[in-house]
Known about the structure:
Elements: H1 4-9, H2 12-39, H3 56-61, H4 63-88, H5 104-109, H6 117-122
Amino acid sequence: MPDPVSEHHEGMDASSDDIAETLHAKRTELLQQMGVLEEKPTDHGSISFGKRVGEGTSMAVDRLSQVAVHDRLQTTLADVERALAKLEESSYGSCDVCGEPIGAERLEALPWAVRCVEDAARR
Length: 123
Ligand SMILES: [Zn+2]
C-alpha cells in the first residue's frame, strides 16, 4: 500500500537541493581538474614532478589542448557558479538571455545550463 505522505515529500525543495548538490560536486570536480592542469611543471621547477617521469613528450604535444581544456573547464565553472546563483534567486531553469524555460531534458543532461539551446548556440 503506497504511503501518500512520502509521495508528497518529493516536491520542488527536495529536487533543488539535489541540483545544488550536483552543482557543488561539479564545481569541486572542475576546480580539481583545473588544479591538475595548472600543476604541470612549466616555469616553476619547485613543484614536485617525480610522479610524471616519462610523460615529457606527450606533455609538450598536449600543451595546446591543455590550454583549450582549461578554457572549457573555466567556462563550465562560470556556468556552474551562475546556475548556483540562479538557484538562490529562484531563476534556475530560465534562460539568462531570453528568460524562456531552458527545458527539463536539457537541464537533466546539463544541470548547469543557464541558457536555452538557441542562446547557448549563438555564443
Ligand atoms: Zn534563451
